[in-house]
């Protein structure tokens, strides 16, 4: 069992009020994450109060939590650990109202028997978020608390500003933690380490050496039970204005003056301020065939399940460098990569047919999977007579280190940070409002959705969008498997 260290865990015991406790995210990520954080000893005392529309009792909530851990926990759930976790749980149906919630929180605080803090986690759709905030206000649970908000933060600029204004009527900005779980992924943080802890790459991290950047997050999964949510949201609001733009900011920002929340947010927000508005002509919206026949989907739905776009950061470092972003459901492969294509040499002394340039430019590629990988590809000589060039690569895999077992899942990391009041990996109201602002030309005049076959890479128009360049995925050469020698 891990020792609690003041550097990793919060100083105070925590009462977690989990709104949406029976929902998809709670089952897949939040309950398993809280199970790991409490059972590994990261939190010095914890109680978890589930809240949801479901009119169930504590026993039923415990059963639901147990089923969620069995299905989704990435770590084994032993009997003793489960018993300890089950004892931390409580449940209040939303219909029971403010008084019942207040009583449950006070009871938990007494049970903890020591100084504690409150962490309200709103794992609810945007339409339900404000009433949960109101309820917390009425119940008098704002003091000593922090509130974690799930995206999307609004659906456009007007609604985002309105949401922030109403939130600020109950919670101070320092109490609000807007979560974007992509920033909690180990490899996302590793972008900061890679860029700013080494002298090697930062000098070439600019328009003079970089031709273009791709952030590509295709998913194989469909929508399952989430069609209702997705109909309102679509791929742009679900993935791009949130995760992909946040990753882009880590990739593109200037060196912050310190690894602290304010300097990091400042540099990210500068990137967002330099972004040019997203033009509909630079966007391909797609919908997989069959989507409209799914349960909960409008027969004439115009929601996109796929989006690819070109955007630009018009500052000294990046002027003229296109950033291509793509993500979608029911695509050919599940990948999460950032791929940086370097400029090619101005002249080639190699004879025609030698293969130089034949496999695209040199690339630096980050894989954002929890077990992250990185590769640097370059041309090198094929052994033997003559001068024949092949694309080769240097690769790193987290599996090669002894630390793979220490990887915290993104939500675990971020819940722990919110408990410690560390905002470094959270987004700000200013940044989010600016992202909606640059999105407005697209949201006001979205191009029509084009259909794509499930299992493909999206509508054909994606190739025109990036021409004369090409999408990096599917990879021509697979990642090397670190466990296999000689491939
Ligand atoms: C969520 C989106 O925020 O991120 C989902 O709502 C998406 O649609 C998911 O599938 C992807 O996250 P991850 O961590 O599995 O890459």
Question: In words, what does this structure look like?
Answer:
It is a single chain. The protein is α/β, with parallel strands linked by helices and 487 residues long. The chain has twelve helices and 15 strands. It has helices spanning 24-39, 58-72, 79-86, 97-112, 126-138, 157-168, 186-196, 227-252, 261-274, 410-419, 429-444, 461-466, and strands spanning 13-19, 46-52, 89-93, 116-122, 145-149, 176-178, 210-218, 283-288, 306-311, 323-328, 337-342, 363-367, 373-381, 389-397, 450-452. The strands form two sheets. A nine-stranded mixed β-sheet has the order 14-13-12-11-7-10-9-8-15. It has a six-stranded parallel β-sheet with strand order 3-2-1-4-5-6, with helices on both faces. The two termini are 37 Å apart. The mean pLDDT is 94. 6-O-phosphono-beta-D-glucopyranose binds next to loops.
């Amino acid at each position: 069992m891990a020792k609690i260290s003041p550097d990793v865990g919060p100083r105070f015991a925590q009462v977690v009020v989990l709104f949406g406790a029976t929902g998809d995210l709670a089952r897949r990520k939040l309950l398993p994450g809280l199970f790991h954080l409490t059972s590994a000893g990261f939190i010095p005392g914890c109680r978890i109060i589930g809240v949801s529309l479901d009119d169930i009792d504590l026993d039923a909530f415990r059963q639901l939590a147990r089923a969620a851990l069995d299905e989704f926990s990435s770590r084994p759930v032993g009997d003793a650990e489960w018993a300890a976790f089950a004892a931390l749980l409580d449940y209040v149906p939303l219909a029971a109202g403010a008084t019942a919630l207040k009583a449950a929180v006070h009871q938990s605080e007494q049970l903890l028997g020591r100084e504690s803090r409150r962490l309200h986690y709103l794992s609810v759709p945007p339409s339900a978020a404000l009433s949960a905030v109101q309820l917390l206000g009425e119940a008098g649970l704002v003091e000593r608390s922090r509130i974690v908000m799930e995206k999307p933060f609004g659906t456009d600029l007007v609604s985002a500003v309105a949401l922030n204004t109403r939130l600020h009527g109950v919670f101070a900005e320092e109490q609000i933690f807007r979560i974007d779980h992509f920033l909690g992924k180990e490899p996302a943080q590793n972008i900061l380490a890679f860029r700013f802890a080494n002298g090697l790459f930062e000098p070439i991290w600019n328009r003079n050496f970089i031709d273009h950047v791709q952030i590509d997050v295709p998913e194989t999964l469909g929508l399952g039970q989430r069609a209702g949510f997705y109909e309102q949201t679509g791929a742009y609001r679900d993935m791009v204005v949130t995760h992909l733009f946040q990753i882009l900011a880590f990739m593109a920002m200037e060196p912050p003056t310190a690894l602290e929340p304010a300097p990091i947010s400042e540099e990210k927000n500068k990137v967002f301020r330099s972004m040019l508005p997203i033009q509909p002509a630079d966007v391909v919206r797609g919908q997989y065939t069959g989507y409209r026949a799914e349960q909960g989907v409008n027969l004439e739905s115009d929601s996109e399940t796929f989006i690819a776009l070109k955007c630009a950061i018009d500052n000294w470092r990046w002027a003229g460098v296109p950033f291509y972003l793509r993500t979608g459901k029911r695509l050919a492969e599940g990948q999460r990569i950032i791929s940086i294509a370097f400029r090619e040499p101005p002249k080639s002394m190699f004879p025609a047919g030698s293969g130089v340039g034949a496999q695209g430019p040199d690339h630096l590629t980050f894989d954002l999977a929890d077990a992250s990988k990185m590769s640097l590809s370059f041309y090198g000589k094929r052994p033997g007579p003559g001068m024949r060039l092949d694309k080769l690569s240097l690769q790193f895999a987290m599996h090669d280190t002894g630390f793979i077992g220490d990887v915290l899942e993104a939500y675990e990391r971020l819940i722990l940070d919110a408990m410690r009041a560390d905002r470094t990996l959270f987004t700000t109201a200013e940044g989010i409002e600016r992202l909606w602002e640059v999105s407005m030309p697209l949201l006001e005049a979205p191009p029509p959705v084009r259909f794509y076959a499930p299992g493909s890479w999206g509508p054909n128009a994606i190739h025109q969008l990036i021409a004369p360049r090409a999408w990096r995925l599917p990879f021509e050469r697979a990642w090397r498997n670190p466990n296999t020698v000689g491939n």
